[in-house]
Amino acid sequence: MSVLVTGGTGYIGSHTCVDFIEKGQDIVILDNLCNSKIEVLDYIEQITGIRPKFYQCDLLDKEGMKKIFDENDIDTVIHFAGLKAVGESVAKPIEYYKNNITGTLNLIEEMRDHNCFKLVFSSSATVYGKPKSVPIKEDFPLSTTNPYGTTKLYIEQILKDLCVADDRFSVVLLRYFNPIGAHSSGLIGDNPNGIPNNLMPYVTRVAKGVLPHLNVFGNDYETADGTGVRDFIHVLDLAAGHYAALKALSNPGVSIYNLGTGNGVSVLDIINTFERVTGIKIPYQIAPRRPGDIAECFADASKAEFELGWKATRGLDEMCASAWNFESKHS
Ligand code: NAD
Ligand code: UFG
């Protein structure tokens, strides 16, 4: 039996593919390469010694997806594929709703038609909106502030409705906090096109000299040093959370887990740690708050530890060092 990984050449997907292959799991990758490169397959092969079967296919291409299910014995899907840029989603809501929601509907329809009923979905801490308190537990109220977040919330609801309607389905919703870092080989990592939106790729490009300085979006939040606080998690820990989540697929219905470390880390903490670990100075300027940002967001990750036996183990030093190792080896 194979696991189909949608979005498997992307940032989190590629690390998860490596983890699954190293654990002996046969995988098949589907990706349309709109935000990743075909070379990632070479890198996965270099790291693991195994080249996974790959289909360049769009979630909106029903015929292409049918072919993948027809040609492979797929019993589980890990569903990463989706568009993820918050700002872009505000400018292009139609593209985001179509890609993420219609894409997911196509996928689950194809799964049902091929008797494949186990699904792990990449959700996000963004579904908690502005949380009433931290750490955030899975049963906190849900809301969103942008079309990207709304696609995650709607897809969660669609998958809940699906499990009510059809008890053959088992779904795990994984709500990721802030993945950073890269595989120790430096071959795969976060490589956004253009100017990065997220903090760590921006920091590594400033370190490389590609960007002149970092803008720190606000230093007047009610946090210890005034800058935003997030739950940064090493992408390899996040990847391992998917393997652990397979366990919950033996339960019928929907299971929901936060994947975070449980630690709040500020923007200045990231800058200071990065500078100490790499020896590279990160020039920064305090800039106005970024619209839509919240002061603090970190997980209560105890449910995943208790029920799945999963816990993040890698610290901030390793996250910063591996992110820089990746950036310094890539153009
Ligand atoms: P990514 O962009 O690196 O990977 C997503 C992959 O999906 C890309 O390779 C892209 O080419 C592919 N893709 C997009 N639309 C597709 C389509 N219609 N058909 C086929 N392939 C398609 O992103 P990532 O950071 O690896 O994120 C993976 C998932 O995790 C996404 O669903 C994202 O929303 C979610 N997530 C990411 C973060 C984060 O900070 N990176 C946080 C929370 C949730
Ligand atoms: N930040 C800066 N300067 C930058 C970029 C970010 O100061 O150039 C700050 C932000 O203001 C925030 C923190 O760094 O305080 C983290 O920002 P990111 O953009 O890296 O991450 P977010 O927490 O805003 O959002 C990310 C993803 C979302 C996802 C969320 C939770 O982009 O899609 O994590 O998983 F929903």
Could you explain how this protein is built, in words?
This protein is α/β, with parallel strands linked by helices and 331 residues long. It has helices at residues 11-22, 39-48, 62-71, 86-91, 93-113, 147-165, 199-208, 235-245, 267-278, 302-308, 316-329, and strands spanning 2-6, 27-31, 53-56, 74-79, 118-124, 170-176, 178-180, 214-217, 229-230, 232-234, 253-259, 265-266, 284-287, 296-297. The protein has a seven-stranded parallel β-sheet with strand order 3-2-1-4-5-6-11, sandwiched between helices. Strands 12-9-14 form a three-stranded mixed β-sheet. A two-stranded parallel ribbon has the order 7-10. Helix 3 (62-71) runs parallel beside helix 5 and helix 9 (267-278) crosses helix 11. The two termini are 37 Å apart. Bound molecules: nicotinamide-adenine-dinucleotide and uridine-5'-diphosphate-4-deoxy-4-fluoro-alpha-D-galactose. Uridine-5'-diphosphate-4-deoxy-4-fluoro-alpha-D-galactose binds at residues 84, 86, 124-126, 176-178, 197-199, 202, 214-217, 228, 230, 267, 290, 293.
In short:
This protein is an alpha/beta fold and 331 residues long.
Task: Show the helix and strand layout.
Layout: E1 2-6, H1 11-22, E2 27-31, H2 39-48, E3 53-56, H3 62-71, E4 74-79, H4 86-91, H5 93-113, E5 118-124, H6 147-165, E6 170-176, E7 178-180, H7 199-208, E8 214-217, E9 229-230, E10 232-234, H8 235-245, E11 253-259, E12 265-266, H9 267-278, E13 284-287, E14 296-297, H10 302-308, H11 316-329
Parallel strand pairs: 1-2, 1-4, 2-3, 4-5, 5-6, 6-11, 7-10, 8-13, 9-14
Antiparallel strand pairs: 9-12
Helix pairs in contact: 1-2, 1-8, 3-5, 5-6, 7-11, 9-11
The chain binds nicotinamide-adenine-dinucleotide and uridine-5'-diphosphate-4-deoxy-4-fluoro-alpha-D-galactose (UFG).
Nicotinamide-adenine-dinucleotide is lined by residues 7, 9-13, 31-36, 58-60, 80-84, 99, 103, 122, 124, 176, 178-179.
